[in-house]
Design goal:
This protein has about 475 residues and is of the alpha/beta class. The chain is built from 15 helices and 14 strands.
């Protein structure tokens, strides 16, 4: 096994003395050199004491850096044998770029999550009053509270898709719904088609099942039916994960003709469609009316996922699955092994928020439209070389860079106080380096300031030894 001395590591990482917190900058620099191949995998690292003496920092600082590297999967240790470099398992590692353990004062442009609406507080207070009578039971509702399932089913019916409460399974957010569906219907080696770019946690769910990812391209202009149908046919895809409503991150909206054609292709190729409607309620401009994808389903192969995180609030971990009655029950039985049911109080809050659906939709439309327009205006002023199509709904702008890579820009932006979501987070096999996702779910003032800082970061470039923090909690 190759061994690096403390002096060699100190010369390689070159962490600025003023970096704060120093232990994180040290860990990020070591990780960067492992990924770049400058420090090979299975290289023995110097003892903590020796590295601390060489760097002239406390041993506690180096210990904290080594602990962070172990937590991320980039370092392995054994008592009496020292520590050596490693690469994490992408299906199980906690080194997930979506979650920061603290905000470190950065402007957070990596999640696309709006704050709670005006109606949230009142709905919470009413839900607390409602909860008293539910406390007389055991609190377990594997399918979800009947009153909430009725409201969700009625909302689908109002959209033109007749739905019974028995077809609804309440989940602990959309991400949980994705894992439930894939956990029941996808096995190791099964081909699963996903859009590229796509929601990163859908990729995580496919990998967690040991399934095979089949990417198919989508852009702001939408989906090409022949490519989608061809990918289904050639891969014999068991499942396809799609976001037809203001797709995350491109903002594309699928028209009814395309929905019908893709549903037909799924029927011919025996592919189950897992349709994520998380952004469906957030049209910001006048758009053509579209029917839910399941309205074009003639043989019960469309499973629909919904969530309250974008319309209402991400802190309410409530989502749902719409499927056949039989499949909804199978999914409830399957989820019980891990998560018996979703929180009663949060379900009651969501039920109350359904009473304020139009009010909240109007509030979201006003706020997101103002933020979107401010973001576009700031980009035109400070970064006119970047190209994008302004979406008519949703909450994200999918930007093509004129030069350089999104990952290096994200690293540079950290030193300017902004955390970004580079394109490769939304793709597979390191693709999409030329893109950046910019959400407009924060205030116009924050977005304008963030773009100013991003432009400064782009002009200056990365600071040596400073990397984008990686220890995260899932954000979307």
């Amino acid at each position: 096994m190759v061994h690096l001395s403390a002096g060699q590591v100190a010369r390689l990482v070159d962490v600025p003395p003023g970096a704060r917190p120093y232990y994180r900058a040290l860990a990020d620099a070591v990780r960067a050199h492992i990924l770049d191949g400058q420090i090979p995998v299975h290289t023995r690292m110097p003892a903590e004491r020796h590295l601390a003496e060489t760097l002239r920092v406390s041993r506690t600082t180096v210990t904290a850096a080594y602990d962070l590297l172990r937590e991320r999967g980039y370092l392995e240790s054994r008592q009496g044998s020292g520590s050596w470099t490693a690469l994490p398992d992408p299906a199980t590692t906690g080194d997930n770029p979506w979650l920061a353990t603290d905000d470190e004062g950065l402007l957070q442009l990596h999640p696309a999550a709006p704050p709670g609406p005006t109606a949230l507080r009142e709905a919470m207070l009413e839900a607390v009053e409602d909860a008293a009578r539910y406390g007389m039971g055991n609190g377990y509702h594997p399918m979800g509270l009947p009153v909430l399932r009725e409201r969700i089913a009625a909302h689908y019916t109002a959209r033109g898709l007749a739905t019974l409460p028995e077809q609804i399974l309440v989940t602990t957010g959309a991400q949980h719904a994705i894992h439930c569906a894939m956990g029941l219907l996808v096995g190791p080696g099964d081909p699963v088609m996903v859009e590229s770019p796509t929601y990163p946690h859908a990729i995580d769910a496919v990998r967690a099942r040991g399934a095979r990812i089949v990417p198919v391209g989508v852009s702001h202009a939408g989906w090409q039916v022949d490519l989608v149908a061809g990918a289904m046919r050639q891969s014999a895809a068991r499942m396809a994960y799609l976001m037809p409503d203001f797709q995350n991150p491109t903002g594309a909206l699928m028209d009814d003709a395309t929905r019908a054609a893709i549903a037909g292709a799924a029927r011919r190729n025996d592919t189950t469609l897992l349709v994520d409607e998380t952004w469906a309620e957030l049209a910001l401009d006048e758009v053509p009316a579209t029917a839910p994808m399941a309205a074009f389903d003639t043989d019960s192969r469309v499973i629909t996922i919904g969530s309250v995180s974008k319309l209402w609030w991400g802190g309410l971990r409530i989502g749902w699955i719409r499927a056949t009655t039989a499949l909804a029950r199978r999914l409830a039985q399957q989820r019980a092994a891990v998560d018996i049911s979703s929180p009663v109080l949060e379900q009651l809050v969501v039920m109350r928020l359904f009473d304020r659906l139009e009010e909240t939709r109007a509030e979201r439309r006003r706020a997101l439209r103002a933020s979107r327009d401010a973001l576009v205006l700031a980009l035109r002023e400070h970064l006119p070389e970047w190209t994008y199509t302004v979406p008519r709904g949703g909450g994200t702008l999918w930007v093509r860079l004129d030069e350089g890579g999104a990952t290096s820009l994200a690293e540079a932006a950290v030193s300017h106080g902004v955390r970004l979501a580079p394109g490769p987070w939304f793709g597979v096999e390191g693709t999409l380096e030329g893109y950046l996702r910019l959400p407009y779910t924060q205030s116009p003032q924050i977005l304008t300031e963030a773009v100013t800082r991003i432009a400064a970061a782009r002009a200056r470039g990365p600071v040596a030894g400073v990397r984008t923090p990686d220890t995260l909690i899932p954000l979307v």
